[in-house]
């Protein structure tokens, strides 16, 4: 059973957090609140998140400073950040947001449909990456000679390879459909780049599986 993705909502005003929850509840994912930058950083120490919605204007540690801390940590540096701000100070202010590592910068009041659509893209990419890691873990088990069936019995290599190939094919099909959707909609460059990175990883995993097929001459292929 695929676990739900976690979305981190960071805003010092409870009414804004409530509004974000109302907008994103239709995605049926796990929404986590943080009322300050410090609280957000604490949540990021223990949980993995698909995307972070981060308010810019907060007392104490503001959104820019919070984002800088997130991007400095190896564990969290690749989590997409969408900045939300009630004040538009012009191009310089927007540039500062992107320089801090944001993938998007949205001014309030924002269109709920647009925000939900943007967040859903990053949630879907996150889920595909989780599936890819699962396939890579199964492949490593096979390479190490430790493949086990669900009941705990040893499974024949050919049977495990067939199972891995089928599971990978399902992820490949979903990733291809997602990439086509992103291309057709001309969405955020960051999302398109992330999807392309996912497809490259899938290609490497497919090559590794092909190298394990009986009669293959490629040996053990590397999975990056």
Automatic annotation (TrEMBL):
<dbReference type="Pfam" id="PF00072">
    <property type="entry name" value="Response_reg"/>
</dbReference>
<feature type="coiled-coil region">
    <location>
        <begin position="161"/>
        <end position="188"/>
    </location>
</feature>
<dbReference type="InterPro" id="IPR011006">
    <property type="entry name" value="CheY-like_superfamily"/>
</dbReference>
<dbReference type="InterPro" id="IPR001789">
    <property type="entry name" value="Sig_transdc_resp-reg_receiver"/>
</dbReference>
<keyword id="KW-0597">Phosphoprotein</keyword>
<dbReference type="InterPro" id="IPR050595">
    <property type="entry name" value="Bact_response_regulator"/>
</dbReference>
<feature type="modified residue" description="4-aspartylphosphate">
    <location>
        <position position="55"/>
    </location>
</feature>
<protein>
    <submittedName>
        <fullName>Response regulator</fullName>
    </submittedName>
</protein>
<feature type="domain" description="Response regulatory">
    <location>
        <begin position="6"/>
        <end position="123"/>
    </location>
</feature>
<keyword id="KW-0175">Coiled coil</keyword>
């Amino acid at each position: 059973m695929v676990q739900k993705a976690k979305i981190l909502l960071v805003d010092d005003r409870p009414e804004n957090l409530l509004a974000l929850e109302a907008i994103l509840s239709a995605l049926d994912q796990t929404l986590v609140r943080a009322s300050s930058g410090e609280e957000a950083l604490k949540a990021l120490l223990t949980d993995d998140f698909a995307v972070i919605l981060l308010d810019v204007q907060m007392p104490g540690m503001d959104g820019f400073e919070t984002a800088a801390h997130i991007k400095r940590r190896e564990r969290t540096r690749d989590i997409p950040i969408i900045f939300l701000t009630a004040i538009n100070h012009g191009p310089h202010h927007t540039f500062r947001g992107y320089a801090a590592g944001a993938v998007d910068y949205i001014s309030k009041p924002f269109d709920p449909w647009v925000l939900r659509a943007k967040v859903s893209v990053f949630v879907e990419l996150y889920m595909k990456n989780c599936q890819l890691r699962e396939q890579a873990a199964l492949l490593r088990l096979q390479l190490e000679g430790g493949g086990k069936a669900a009941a705990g019995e040893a499974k024949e290599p050919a049977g495990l390879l067939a199972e891995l190939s089928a599971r990978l094919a399902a992820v490949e099909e979903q990733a291809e459909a997602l990439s086509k959707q992103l291309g057709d909609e001309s969405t955020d460059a960051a999302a398109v780049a992330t999807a392309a990175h996912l497809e490259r990883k899938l290609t490497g995993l497919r090559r590794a599986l092909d190298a394990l097929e009986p009669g293959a001459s490629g040996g053990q292929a590397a999975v990056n």
